[in-house]
DNA sequence: CATGAATGAGCTTTCATTCAT
DNA sequence: AATGAATGAAAGCTCATTCAT
């Protein structure tokens, strides 16, 4: 309900379009996150936003368009956050490390965004999955690049055991699932989460149980 | 017309209850898989099942109950399939290997079941996620046990870098995501899929790029 | 409200589909006639029919389909009535005479049908005008045939003053407009109406004012 | 920016009221002609006019009033055009002839006006039909006068076969319908159209097929 | 004068659910 | 046992209309 929105019943103050659009999108993300695309009702969104339904339709279009706008905004934010967190000119493992931390920080601070993107956008038929899968695709490509660059340095070819794309997909999936798991087990700090993944992925169980542990060096 | 018994329009044959229930559940799983919970309509389910709507309500209850029944049946099947695939009295890594292969075989042979369980049940608010998460929980526990048994053998305590539950969650998540990815990239055989995961998880990138590769021994 | 329809609020008696369809169509024609296509509301139609809205949608489809059904039924009735009224094997002028009388009798007895067909169906954009214009086209063709057969007997060619189609269109238009005018001046009997038109069309003002008058002979 | 006066976005030039009203009415007629009264939206009218909606309300009132204004203006124009075309002090048939030509010329040059008046105004319930029927009434009276003057000269009384009003209504209806038909068959010149009607009405089929043809004399 | 911002009210349509046969 | 017939309730969307600047 933003900051109390408008006292219900009264005609809303006149505000510039950009402000209203933000209010609406915020409300929409919240409602979509809570109920999912289908069960979310335009009525609830409009109430939450403190704005009448016609404004929503006039500014952001029908329900589908509104959802698309939400997805675009949130995936943009996520992408920015991760890219801002990654440092270039550091070894691949450190890049991964920083990316993961940024990702988990984002999820922690924007639970609703993540819920909409991961839990809801992917399951609704239609053009929505496409948007999110594009984002996911970028993540996978990024990781795949890291992996392959490592792999090719050592002369690994195209064996069954090694497929950059496949491994990257698995890694990204693991990160996503862990984020999901985190939503219901939020007492773990984000650094630890990233740390688990790094160890799992970089060293594997085998080395791990040997006491061999990956740790971030420098910054 | 009097003694013909089976006439009058298209009145369905009197069938034992168990058979009808199966027809209905099969249809429901198919329709839910295709449209998702909310967009699936009782009408379509009844048509697909070749059974009138009142029968559905009388046998399996309202839409929610019906969905719950679907989830229970399919998660039971998945669990059975995986448990049947696992061999006891083999080393932990081989247990994981067999479990993964059984899992992917199930997904390949029952795409609809998997779709309902993974894509749809988790995103609908309500008691459904609980059902599936229980299943997922059992999988995580199972994996965690393997991991922890390895870990404790080597004296690893509760350090930040090592949490059986967390790692298991990540692994299970990776396996699920890879299954999802597989639905749209089905040209990879299930053995290879399992192989990727094993290498990723057991050895990690680091060993992998050293040319060190995990391979199933014996059966 | 048909014959009191159902006492409002009570669940309607179970009736065979055909009966309900008729009720609905009757109500729809009445409501469309009164308000026109756009202003007619499905709510009013359903109330008038004594049937809930979902039945309308299930039996006759959406508003457009419903309107189409109305038009088809009514134009079919009009066509039948006129065709039943025309006698073959009588001179052309007598055919016209009988056709006109049948037409006006129909309009008198089915004011609503005529209103829907003439006043409303023609002005709504979409496929509706097509349906009615097809009917009108048949009427024009029929008249044109009469006219042309007369004309060609006398050796009239294609002069500017004589175009079967054009004249027939004018005649049909005159008949329609007179019907419309009649709706608001209903004290004239239908025979007289037809008589006016016959005189106007067959003899023209010129002969008329000479005292020359057309009159129906025999049957 | 302060003294620039005409700035800030797209704020329309301050224009005298009469000009604005014309802009609005022109747009309204165009939009009403295209979509009909109900489907025309105030939004589209305001966009077409290049004027904001509040101006429309302030200058010309609500939708109904606006439509009334349209009808008044256009029917006035039509009336003027026809009256200007008629010559006094010529025989009745020539008066009719000139009136018809003027009418068809107007329709040709103002298709939208005619569409609004004939196709739309008549079918909307409410006060609109009244406006147009008043116009039509004047046309009918005018024609009736011609007819009756002819008739009474010859001593025709009030017989069933002869009613000035009825005949005039039929004639006017025929002219209108022919105009409508013309909208979709515009390759016929207006003179020919008028010529058809004159022949039909003045001479009738009977004389026509005898080779007797009405032709305009002098101017 | 002129308008962007705002909404109440209403419409069509659909769906899960139940009754009567 | 089995179903066609029936509906309450709600959702998405649009429109004519007005207020505040």
Automatic annotation (TrEMBL), chains A, B, C, D:
PROSITE patterns: HTH_TETR_2 (PS50977). Pfam families: TetR_C_46, TetR_N. InterPro entries: DesT_TetR_C, Homeodomain-like_sf, HTH-type_TetR-like_transc_reg, HTH_TetR, Tet_transcr_reg_TetR-rel_C_sf. The keyword Ribonucleoprotein does not apply. Residues 18-78 form the HTH tetR-type domain. Keywords: DNA-binding, Transcription, Transcription regulation. Residues 41-60 bind DNA. This is TetR/AcrR family transcriptional regulator.
């Amino acid at each position: 309900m933003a900051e109390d929105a408008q006292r219900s019943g009264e005609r809303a103050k006149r505000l510039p379009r950009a402000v209203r659009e933000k209010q609406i999108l915020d409300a929409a993300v919240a409602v979509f996150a809570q109920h999912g695309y289908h069960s979310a009702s335009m009525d609830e969104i409009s109430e939450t936003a403190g704005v009448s339904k016609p404004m929503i339709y006039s500014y952001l279009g029908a329900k589908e368009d509104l959802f698309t706008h939400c997805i675009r905004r949130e995936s943009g934010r996520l992408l920015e956050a991760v890219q801002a967190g990654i440092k270039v000119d550091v070894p691949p493992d450190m890049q991964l490390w920083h990316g993961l931390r940024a990702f988990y920080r984002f999820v922690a601070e924007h639970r609703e965004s993540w819920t909409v993107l991961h839990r809801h956008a992917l399951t609704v038929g239609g053009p929505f999955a496409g948007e999110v899968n594009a984002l996911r695709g970028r993540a996978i490509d990024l990781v795949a690049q890291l992996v392959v660059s490592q792999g090719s340095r050592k002369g690994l070819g195209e064996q069954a055991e090694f497929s950059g794309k496949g491994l990257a997909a698995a890694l990204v999936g693991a990160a996503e699932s862990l984020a999901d798991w985190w939503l219901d087990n939020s007492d773990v700090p984000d650094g630890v989460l990233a740390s688990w993944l790094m160890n799992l992925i970089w060293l594997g169980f085998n080395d791990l149980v040997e006491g061999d542990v990956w740790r971030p060096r420098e910054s």
